[in-house]
């Protein structure tokens, strides 16, 4: 049981770190142009230098929603990690990890909404580029989506032990 808890703790920390990286870094979409490699993230457009991400007025609300949901997912994941540690040492065996599992499900939902909006609205749009593909931050966000779901289910199953 201790090894299982330690494994879940390590995966949870890795998920938090990957959420930070995927939200902060500017490599959600990568394209090539006559200027070289162009990458876009949630905040900036980077070529040789980084500048504010140019967004049309119709897409601005979608981008703000993606930014908000990714930040919320980080917040909920950190809260769930703190709650895991608190519940591990304070609650008795049949009542542990309900709150942690529920908070991680909210984190999972925030990641799902944020990355889905980005997928629907921005995956084919890299300014100044001729061809584009997904960057590592986009892939990390989907990996965090899977990890947060698995962790939340494990927390809800572990409440019985």
Automatic annotation (TrEMBL):
Cross-referenced Gene3D superfamilies: 1.20.140.150
Lineage: superkingdom: Eukaryota
Encoding gene (name): Emp1
Organism from which the protein derives: Dromas ardeola
PROSITE patterns assigned to the protein according to its UniProt record, in alphabetical order: PMP22_1, PMP22_2
Matching PANTHER family: EPITHELIAL MEMBRANE PROTEIN 1 (PTHR10671:SF6), EPITHELIAL MEMBRANE PROTEIN-RELATED (PTHR10671)
Membrane-spanning segments: 7-29, 65-85, 97-118, 138-158
Location relative to the cell: Membrane
Protein's UniProt name: Epithelial membrane protein 1
Sequence similarity: Belongs to the PMP-22/EMP/MP20 family.
InterPro entries linked to this entry: PMP-22/EMP/MP20-like, PMP22/EMP/MP20/Claudin, PMP22_EMP_MP20
Principal location class: membrane
Pfam families: PMP22_Claudin
A cellular component annotation (GO) from this entry: plasma membrane
Membrane topology, as annotated: Multi-pass membrane protein
Annotated keywords: Glycoprotein, Membrane, Transmembrane, Transmembrane helix
């Amino acid at each position: 049981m201790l090894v299982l808890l330690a494994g879940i703790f390590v995966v949870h920390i890795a998920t938090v770190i990957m959420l930070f990286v995927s939200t902060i870094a500017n490599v959600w979409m990568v394209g090539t142009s006559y200027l070289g490699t162009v990458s876009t993230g949630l905040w900036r457009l980077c070529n040789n230098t980084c500048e504010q991400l140019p967004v049309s007025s119709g897409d601005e609300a979608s981008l703000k929603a993606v930014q908000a949901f990714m930040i919320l997912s980080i917040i909920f994941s950190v809260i769930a990690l703190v709650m895991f540690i608190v519940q591990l040492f304070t609650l008795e065996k049949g009542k542990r990890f309900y709150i942690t599992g529920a908070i991680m499900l909210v984190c999972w939902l925030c990641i799902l909404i944020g990355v889905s909006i980005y997928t629907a609205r921005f995956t084919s749009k890299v300014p100044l580029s001729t061809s584009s593909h997904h960057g590592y931050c986009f892939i990390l966000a989907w990996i965090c989506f899977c990890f947060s779901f698995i962790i939340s289910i494990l927390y809800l199953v572990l409440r019985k032990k």
